Amino acid sequence: AQEDDMQKMLACQTHIGTRNxxxxxxxxxxxRRSDGVHIINIGKTWxxxxxxxxxxxxxxxxxxxxxxxxxxxxQRAVLxxxxxxxxxxxxxxxxxxxxxxxIQAKFMEPRLLIVTDPRLDHQPLREASYVNIPSVxxxxxxxxxxxxxxxIPCNNKAKHSIGLMYWLLAREVLxxxxxxxxxxxxxxxxxxxxxxxxSDRQAEDQAQSFGxxxxxxxxxxxxxxxxxxxGVAAGYTDNWGTPSxxxxxxxxxxxxxxxxxxxxxxxxxxxxxTA
Length: 275
What we know:
Layout: H1 2-11, E1 29-32, E2 38-40, H2 42-57, E3 65-69, H3 75-85, E4 88-91, E5 112-115, H4 122-130, E6 135-139, E7 150-153, H5 159-177, H6 198-220, H7 269-274
Parallel strand pairs: 3-4, 3-5, 5-6, 6-7
Antiparallel strand pairs: 1-2
Helix pairs in contact: 2-5, 3-5
């Protein structure tokens, strides 16, 4: 299972770092490529996922765990992760004073904080340090580790890498809680944790609506002699050139002309004009 997870990490480019390197993140770097990009040691990433999952399981009430993501690529993953483990998610802008201002309407006192990027989510990290809340963070090679207690080294700038990290962390938490067996694979796909572009979402919705219209047309079937609904006149015929002999033919008056070239009968409008 560990080898499969590492292959997923390589496929999602979790090991790709940046050209800049924070001094505190140096132990998590394996090597540096010729183009200057640092490569993250995914073996230590796996170990830190195990450690973070144990810290999450140690919290008795899962609703006391807060997951924050100001980065758009991690907002969907945060919501899915919070739903899976029962935590509270804050996606988007973090309101200052959420952990420190008791007068605020959204004031909360969590027991554990999880952030997607220590640089973008610096406000919740700073407030957590004021009230002694332990923190877990997804850290890139250039991420500062100030006020971070458990750093998970990974690529926190790619949407696939962020989604995979939260998916692996949620699965490991469920394994430690005993709700999910390690022998059976998790039925939740990692694709659900990936960020979706608005254009891709609209294209998918249009494809689904178009597919529904096609299915409706197929269900309606072709109109033929064997598919005539009840209530249709008995003079129905498949050939449009054949004149109908149903009720419509009897609605024409007795004096109505049968063709355009015939003169109208007396007693009509012309009769009043000549009188």
